[in-house]
Amino acid sequence: MSTVDKQLETVRATIADEVPNRISISDVKYEGPELVIYTRDPREFASDGDLIRRLASKLRKRITVRPDPEVLSPADQAREEISDVIPEEAGVTDLDFHADTGEVVIEAQKPGIVIGRHGATLREITQKVGWTPEVVRTPPIESSTVQNVRNFLKQEREDRRDILERVGRQIHREPMSDDEWVRITTLGCCREVGRAAFILSTPDTRILVDCGDKPGAEDEMPYLHIPEGLGSGATSIDAVVLTHAHLDHSAFVPLLFEHGYDGPIYCTEPTRDLMGLLTLDYIDAASKEGRTQPYDSEMVREAIKHTVPIEYGDVTDIAPDVKLTLHNAGHILGSAVSHFHIGDGLYNVAFSGDIHYDDTRLFDGAVNDFPRVETLVLESTYGGRNDYQTDQGDSERDLKRVINETYERDGTVLVPAFAVGRSQEIMLVLEEAMRNGDIPEMPVYLDGMIWEATAIHTTYPEYLRDDLRDRIFDEDENPFLADQFEHVDGGDDEREAVADGEPCIVLSTSGMVTGGPITSWLEHLGPDPDSSLVFVDYQAQGTLGRRIQNGQNEIPVGGGSGRSNTVSMEMNVETVDGFSGHADRQGLENFVRTMNPRPEKVLCVHGDESATQDLSSGLYHEFNMRTFAPQNLETFRFL
Amino acid sequence: MSTVDKQLETVRATIADEVPNRISISDVKYEGPELVIYTRDPREFASDGDLIRRLASKLRKRITVRPDPEVLSPADQAREEISDVIPEEAGVTDLDFHADTGEVVIEAQKPGIVIGRHGATLREITQKVGWTPEVVRTPPIESSTVQNVRNFLKQEREDRRDILERVGRQIHREPMSDDEWVRITTLGCCREVGRAAFILSTPDTRILVDCGDKPGAEDEMPYLHIPEGLGSGATSIDAVVLTHAHLDHSAFVPLLFEHGYDGPIYCTEPTRDLMGLLTLDYIDAASKEGRTQPYDSEMVREAIKHTVPIEYGDVTDIAPDVKLTLHNAGHILGSAVSHFHIGDGLYNVAFSGDIHYDDTRLFDGAVNDFPRVETLVLESTYGGRNDYQTDQGDSERDLKRVINETYERDGTVLVPAFAVGRSQEIMLVLEEAMRNGDIPEMPVYLDGMIWEATAIHTTYPEYLRDDLRDRIFDEDENPFLADQFEHVDGGDDEREAVADGEPCIVLSTSGMVTGGPITSWLEHLGPDPDSSLVFVDYQAQGTLGRRIQNGQNEIPVGGGSGRSNTVSMEMNVETVDGFSGHADRQGLENFVRTMNPRPEKVLCVHGDESATQDLSSGLYHEFNMRTFAPQNLETFRFL
Ligand SMILES: [Zn+2]
Ligand SMILES: [Zn+2]
Ligand SMILES: [Zn+2]
Ligand SMILES: [Zn+2]
Ligand SMILES: [Zn+2]
């Protein structure tokens, strides 16, 4: 008998002790980080509101209770009974019954009403029909990504349950080693912005944190092939943790499955969907630019299938000796500061991922409140000694000034923006500015995946700021549905017409001008001195965006279709930096300053060489902690 | 055609250009780091004294010329002709003809005379008989180790040639990577004394430097199993370099072959023989102490078969991007400071191994004169801020005082000593002291492998100090043959008789009292307050030696044969530290101070935590270089 099976025996015995005799337990197994209890008496189980909580605290595990399939009421009958229980205003749009697990997935416009106060409505459903309800939100703006992911997961349900059971057994295996150490290996993202990839390892466990590309340097992948990377095979990795969906963190996650990885990916639910959107676009762009696709779209589906979504604040076992907790990072939708608790109080490491320390219109500022963190791996994008950003209020005034000036010249304002990240922030600024009359009403064209990304934002309002969340639920108040937002879907002819037409604002990907529709826009608008190009986010070294910022005035356009021209850059080029998704130097320092307790060691990564070194030396002098500006390919040992 | 074969084509063309037409070349191939040229005209080749040198400088390779087997004169005839050429006083003891390679191995008491001035006699031999002479020394003291190694290598000649050809092709393969980096991974020996094991890696090459055990902590092996160790298989290592034969550097080298390693071991010839001696004894001791043998003696033979011996100062290609040069380390016979030149002027790393900076009776002080070293990995055994040793003159006086005092009490002087290392130094001190009348003439018993190790020393006098080398060749002057030295070979009865008999001196292994005959000696002598136990070398933490030094007065004896008693320790315990094989703090600083140029970075290893940290901080403050006291399991990147 394997150690996991032995351990499950003990768990079963404990459950038998705790659960009253009248409730019969038919099976107990692991599914990913959760312990699933099958019962022949789901109604009785549900009637004791505290039983699950007691079991969870006794077993120190996350627990899900499911009815034994044999005791379920028929789906048709259950459908009617459920409809009777859920109030009308919940806006149920779909009920999906899965007889194999006794789960019913309820898609509703207002999930909170389906759940009820402290889960009362859900318990009532279980008591009535036996089925276990699971609630998802109906996207307020239709999102093909969300729909595709949900359909795909529904279709792959069985496969997914096998994966989760395997992952569950892996997580709950017996630790093998008596040694105690914690190490971080840098496979990328050191003294550079991009190709984030770190291995966090203990004697028992190896976790890959992020696996991204390097914008502007397509051939510089993370060093996956070195022995301490995937050198001894992708199966040497126990888990992948994805801090957020930006490609410099996620682009090569699907590739892992091509290399034979078959384990879990832990991230938030929006990160999963955004990763799907962005990586599919990533391989599509590679094809269009005549590069070899780094992997097939099948691998993106594998990645989605292997994702175990977790919510902010949930402490989750991801290995026998590692607990993971994700916290809001304030950077993009679903972005997470990832906190690892290792051993039983042995050591704690937090990876900041990309963070924004102050609140923005979209998000609360990054969480930095952990019971313990000995080592912090901190992004340093704006860690340079002079990297202080304008206050967002000033930035908004500045942006509105540029828009007004351009409008008066009859020009067009072109904003290169990441589909996911600042686009939605800028949309909120523009919507309010027009509403308040700070800038004239004019169309705002959204090109590339910005519209789709916005739809995903509205699907997960619990990841947004409170007031914004509330507005989204009120259709008349949803700022993303304002009339002026136009989705560009007519291709290059539409772009040319827009560019030659009335004054307007264009938000287009890619955010660093490395490809995508922004190139078309530049072809049409570049030579127009009345129009303005406005950078609102970080431009990495080696990208065209950075070169334009630095004054390059001949720019290549065309591309995919074989043309390879240049246009002369006559546009008014402006940088309005307060909208960055990244904390500035002050924000990074504040993030560390306000931690309590502060970490003993900080590794400054995800920044140019000078930014990481400046931040490292700044934190050392200010807080008297051990700080490092690692290089790629190094291994640091803690403990 | 492989890249090696293409490259060999070019080499052949160059040789054809350089060699006069009258000399016909029948084959050119790699054997280990050497290029072997087979010729049908060995005599003509040998007659041009400068031809090989010209080829070597043109091809930048080490070159060996061998006769095509078809043109050899018959062995019987050659034997006579060779005997005619070599002067009588060379003392030839064996001639061994190998028709497959056209080599004749000449074993002689005075190899220098066989070689002749600038190799004149050797060339004369080739001209006369066609065979290529190779000269080895007849051990002045019979050594079963040397004899076994030589017989074994003779018997495995064919296998060995296959190995060397394979190694040669590996060395001369085309480098694959455009990346440039140099890394050191610590698998052991950091903040501890023992289990030396480092991986030096470039994008193309991974070299394991040393692979030893940890005295006093048998279960603490080097971290070979981690991914960046042998995690992706022992064949991921291209070469092993062994700095010297002490078990804390060599014990697990044979184990590599059990793990599937099949590549070369680079070290000096005496290191090879001593490694054979010490590792065989190591597994033997494990059995005797009831531990599992870490590997079979067959693996020791594999290690010997895979050894490519190199001489001090010879620059040797060991990988497409790495040249190795060994230099005298002054620590034990054949010990080497190992200098790695990486890329074409890209980077240089030196591993000190264990060093003695000042001259001793046995050896010149360690070499620290390299054209370039950017990073030095430096031993720190006595790196602590107070680790200053007594001057050897004072130590000798001190040792003589203890001997005289003990003699006057009618006691016995017991010296725990490494078989290889300080034993021979102490023998030289004792021989001179008795000759000069500083101490009374009395027997000096050599127990454990000391006698055999001494025989190996006399086989390789070119690794000893000049004056000692000269004395060894003169039988009447050979200090190791002095009458008072007695080889203990009668077992425990003999020991008891000696211990109960007249005053005498006993040198016995193991040097840190972790096992071996020293235990018997302590059983007999421990309770005798008139006798003295004298420590002359470093006692690692966790060893019985260290505990006795620290005052432990109940000591376990017996052991192997099932008994497990203790005796009370009444002996006079003394530490005379000036004989250490290791540089003291001053010596380590001097080693660095007198380097020119000095390294940019120093990694302080092979010392207790405080010793490495003290040395690291001392070197930083004194020389303003970047210094580190690494932990095990870390990876440092240079470049
Ligand atoms: Zn790969
Ligand atoms: Zn990001
Ligand atoms: Zn990033
Ligand atoms: Zn040594
Ligand atoms: Zn050593």
UniProtKB/TrEMBL annotation, chains A, B:
Record domain Metallo-beta-lactamase: where: 194-418
The record's annotation in SUPFAM superfamilies points to: Metallo-hydrolase/oxidoreductase, Prokaryotic type KH domain (KH-domain type II)
Annotated Gene Ontology MF terms?
DNA binding; RNA binding; RNA endonuclease activity; RNA exonuclease activity; zinc ion binding
> What Gene3D superfamilies does this protein map onto?
3.30.300.20, 3.30.300.230, 3.40.50.10890, Ribonuclease Z/Hydroxyacylglutathione hydrolase-like
Residues given in the record as Zn(2+) 2 binding sites: D248, H249, D354, H606
Keyword Zinc belongs to the record: yes
Q: Where's the K Homology domain?
A: 98-168
Query: EC no.?
Result: 3.1.-.-
Q: Which PANTHER family does the UniProt record give?
A: CLEAVAGE AND POLYADENYLATION SPECIFICITY FACTOR, CLEAVAGE AND POLYADENYLATION SPECIFICITY FACTOR FAMILY MEMBER
The record describes the protein's role as: Terminates transcription on the whole genome. Termination is linked to FttA-mediated RNA cleavage and does not require NTP hydrolysis. Cleaves endonucleolytically at the RNA exit channel of RNA polymerase (RNAP); the 5'-3' exonuclease activity of this protein degrades the nascent RNA released from RNAP.
Protein name per its UniProtKB record? Transcription termination factor FttA
**What organism does the record attribute this protein to?**
Halomicrobium zhouii
